[in-house]
Amino acid sequence: MLLKKSLSLLCLLLTINAVAQIKGTVTDDKGNPLPFVNIFEENTYNGTTSNDKGKFALNVKTENPTVIFQYLGYKTVKKTIAKNQFAEMLTITLVEENITLQEVVINPKDNPANEIIRNAIKNKKENSEKTARFKSDFYSRGIIRLKDAPKTIMGQKFDFFDEILDSTRSGIIYLSETVSKITFQKPDKMKEVIVASKVSGKDNGFSFNNAASVNFDFYENYLPFEVNVVSPIADNAFNYYKYKFEGSFFTENRQQINKIKVIPRRETEPVMEGYIYIVDDSYAVYATDLSIKGNQMQSPAIDKLTLKQSYSYNSINKIWVKNTQTLDFIAGLLSIKLNGRFTYVYSNFEFEKQFEKKTFTNEILSFQENANKKEDSFWNTIRPVPLTEEESTDYIKKDVLQTKKKSKVYLDSIDAKHNKFKVMNVLSGYSYKNSFKKWSIDYDGPLTSLSFNTVQGYRINAGLSYTKRDDDKRTFTRVSSKFDYGFSEEKIRATANYTHKFNNTDNSLLTLNGGSSVNQFNSNNPISNIVNTVSTLFFKNNFMKLYEKNFVSGFFGRELLNGIYLNVSAEYAERKPLYNTTDFSIIKSDDLYTSNNPLSPTDETSAAISKHNLVKTNIAMRFNFGQKYISRPDGKYNIPNDDYPSLSIGYEKTFAATDKNYEYDFVAAKVNYDVTLGNKGTLQMAFKAGKFFNAENISFVDYRHFNGNQTHIGQSDSYTNVFNLLPYYAASTNDSYSETHFEHNDKGYFMNKIPLLKHLQSQLVLGFHNLAVPNRKPYQEFSVGLDNLGFGKYRLFRVDYVRSYQSGYQGDGVIFGLKFLNVLE
After folding, report:
1. Cα Rg of the chain, angstroms
2. What is the mean pLDDT of residues 774-783?
3. Which of 222, 430, 577, 802 is most buried (CB neighbours < 10 A)?
4. What is the pLDDT of residue 824?
5. pLDDT band with cut points at 50, 70 and 90 for residue 4
6. Residue 83's pLDDT band (cuts 50, 70, 90)
7. H/E stretch holding 86
8. Whole-prediction pTM value?
9. Nearest-angstrom CA–CA distance, 258 and 120
10. Is 521 exposed, middle or buried (0-12, 13-18, 19+ CB in 10 A)?
11. How many other C-beta atoms lie within 10 A of the C-beta of residue 333?
12. Cα(465)–Cα(463) distance, rounded to whole angstroms?
């Protein structure tokens, strides 16, 4: 089979190099270049598009081809190219189209555009089915430019791109191309083989451009951006759009094309605006020129994104098919301004009635051997869209720069600048790099780690690590140590860590740890250091409960098969109780701190645990059903399948305890399932259950603890792993339990329709949570909240109102979601 594929590829490449090529420029009648002109051989699906400067190159397969030049707003040109003209640089001139309103006669009582759109919706299933299964060649090119880059951001130097920017601090920061063969079946089955890949400035680079990520099909109800964007010809399109008929024109084969202006009914919803062109009679899509704002598709960093598509027609099989597509964007954040364009060309279509059963697998993309080693002669022959002068210069400039950047002299000079030591680094941290040998030493200073708890008082951390990287294989080895000192406790603790990532294919990872540490009884760490510090010092709420662990442990994890993961771990630990050592607070109050014993908050002399030793082992498996993946020479990249849930199961056993009563067996399972509900948001579900055996007298450390929240501060993106009004250790169990979490985020579906409130650009979140443990009435929470709150592009807040029930109403409260705290931790 491998030999057969190799021979097929060889034949493909020989064929590509055997065809002739015509080149030229497309301009308007004033000599201005026309970008993104749809260019193809008549009655074939062999086509290309012009670049930003109107330049084009088309590989043709006949001696005297008839080539069609099609551009929105201009009359289509059909030109037969004689064989002796192949060596010439052709100039094709297009003149503006005379779009008339008299060409369509429809019931005058109705908006003519509405009738055209209704017919497009009515016929879209038939039109979509015509291109439901195909093979084709695919070319993509992406370019991203940085414009007017700031020299500093929030007081920090921004010099990462200095060497490639011009005097105005502007320039190309990303340029790449791919050539591939794709096999596709609607709605989402894809197999893509990258034949060639090129990344500016990286002679071993592999582009991430691929066909699956840009499969925007207007015949589907939704276009997959950050949220599902409603297609202008979706089944429910009239709920989101108004339409205006702006006239019609005829193609070179006398087919009438209707130009329809697409107008959003509400600017706050995930909808596009611009133009869609519909073929009369068949009501197929002829072209699109539509834009959407970043806040409409909930990508606040993007200011505007424009999606253009052009379709070509084959009079033999009478199918309109998309052959060119561009994505243009303008973006910006923190004074950084970006713009770019991604160009895609589909050609040489082969339509199939059906594919063999094993055509599609979970591998959706792979690379041919040496795909990133193609010579310029190959690219000059196969590239369907000529490079602009700017792009050609960038390849040359970065090839030179790349050679320079790989040299020891250059890397040492960069490191010398980076490695300069300053006195403040003692507190803030310091990093020493040897980029040529690919290792670094990092020191984490205590300044940013300062926190407070009633056991240690003010607490600081400092760390030292050594990392050796293999960038080509994306692996690393790290040895690190961390020191922790509590000023009130007057005690220093230290831990050491060794981590090695073996490969980037099955992500085999080995971790060894040891030392002494202070830990929360709940190993999920439900209270962050920063939240606990504020809660304790300003409100005298010391919810964080701690114990000491002196330990050695090991962990190994890897992917056994696609979507099946195995983790094993073992730990030998001495656990010791800890007590409050300070009653300090910033806000003076007569309130007393609770004890460090979560089972007896008012007893300062007793502890939740006694000193003991224990060996704990754990084996866990996770099944990501239907997982897709991309195979790249530098690793395997997994893509979750939203159609299926994820299942995790685990078994934990302890032994060699100082007291046999501390030994137990434990089994647990968890199911996570996120469902996208069209444009109505997402429903997240989490189901958890577990059971202890022979665990009547185990240590409180080993109980199943649930993620409560008494601080009224939320930090996570979703709350499907927390009970927001549950006291942290009120329901801890050494028996059995079950958890159920539901959270529906409407992604703006309802909020975008409410007057005044729609301007918040918020998302309505509904939640339900249930916890069941023996000898305790089930505990439930119901919540309603608003997510995606903030200012401008910074949407980092969430507010929820929560009510709890347990044999009746228990209480209510407001949870303030501060998602930016995750970055600070």
Report:
1. 31
2. 96
3. 802
4. 56
5. very low
6. confident
7. none
8. 0.90
9. 11
10. buried
11. 15
12. 7
